[in-house]
Amino acid sequence: DIAVWVYVQSENFPAERSFPITQSYLDIIMRGCLSISHDFARRFLETTHGWWHDGLLDEKDHETGTEQILEDEQKTDIGKNERRSIENHHTWVNDRHAPMYVRADSEYSLENGEEIDELIKEHHPHAFQRRVVS
Fold first, then answer.
1. What are the DSSP calls for 44-95, one per residue?
2. Nearest Cα to 96, choosing from 9, 38, 28?
3. Which of 77, 98, 101, 115 could form a disulfide with 24 if both were Cys (CB 3.0 to 4.6 A apart)?
């Protein structure tokens, strides 16, 4: 038996430019998952959503993205200028070189970053492509 802690928000607020997902935080989470097993880390990645929030489309719906965007545009009357800004919007920041997370472990991130990135790309390739460097 092992103890696993789960963080559940009472309200779901997606990441945004002001409060992005930081890679340094994700690396700490992945360190914990990998300390249990690679299978546990993969399961974490498979069941965690919200890696990329563009205001219209969760990467889980990427396959049917065009239809979802059109539906959302009809519901919210989003114009072309707003849509362009959404395409440039980033919510996941690679801050490994200058961690923003106070409990970051730079040494661990540098040693294991490639392995973590490969696992993430396997499960969230669309979101990984949109990760930006801080």
1. HHHH---S-B-SS-BGGGGGGHHHHHHHHHHHHT--HHHHHHHHH---EEE-
2. 28
3. 101
Residue type, 109: S
Interacting residues of 30 by C-beta distance below 8 A, sequence separation 6+: 41, 44, 112, 116, 119
Sign of CA dihedral 37, 43, 46, 47: negative
List pLDDT tens digits, range 12-59. Answer: 777 777 788 899 999 999 999 999 999 999 999 998 877 765 554 444
Which of 47, 51, 60, 42 has its CA nearest to residue 115?
42
Q: Scanning the structure block, which residue is given the tokens 């945004």? A: 16
DSSP state of 10: S
How far does CA 73 lie from the centroid of its chain?
24
The closest of 112, 103, 121 to 45, measured between CA atoms, is 121
Helix (H, G, I), strand (E, B) or coil at 21: strand
Q: How many other β-carbons are positioned within 10 Å of the β-carbon of residue 21? A: 21
